[in-house]
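Worked Example 4.2. Consider the chain below.
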Amino acid sequence: MAILSGQPQPPGMHVAQLNVGRAIDDLEGATLAPFMQALDAINAVAERSDGFVWRYQTEAGNATDLKLTDDPRFIVNLSVWETPQALEHFVWQTVHRRFYERKAEWFEPLAKPHFVMWWVPEGARPTPQEALARLDLLQRQGSSQDAFGWEGLVALTRWREARCG
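Applying the procedure from the previous section yields the following structure tokens:
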């Protein structure tokens, strides 16, 4: 069970996650082609993963055409998982990791946190606007029960090992 600030995952709750990025080039351009071409396959791996619940997607089948800002290169990934451990496994122990390790080829480094998790009631489907508000909360106030990153989950270690590896 994932522990945040000494507290276990609340009963009846799942974990939502938002990951944002700003592409270094147009999404349709050659620079982003390897990322965009792999997106459907990576999403399919997520959907088949133990603990996967839901992911936000538009009619295109992903969320890259969702425009939450005036910046056409700003994209989001929003999903819900049964547990942080299930999400951690997908991120660091599937083919997703190989693409995560290449993020510098496709996305600008961001000065603020770009990934946030928070608890949602089972069955909840957060909106992109709610997710951005959670990210803003993490950026302004740091890790809390309402918005946290990997470092807030003391029982999880794969993310540390993967980042250091």
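The radius of gyration is 15 Å. The first helix runs from residue 33 to 48. Compare this with Example 4.1 before moving on.
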